[in-house]
């Protein structure tokens, strides 16, 4: 995962990617628990 070299621009992008990844993982876990 990329660390911040260029300040806040890359930082917010990394946070967004992280949030999307967490969302996908949460949905994936829910699907496993339901089935």
Automatic annotation (TrEMBL):
Domain of life where this protein originates: Bacteria
Name by which UniProt lists this protein: Uncharacterized protein
């Amino acid at each position: 995962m990329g660390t911040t070299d260029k300040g806040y621009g890359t930082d917010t992008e990394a946070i967004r990617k992280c949030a999307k990844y967490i969302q996908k993982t949460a949905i994936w876990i829910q699907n496993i628990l339901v089935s």
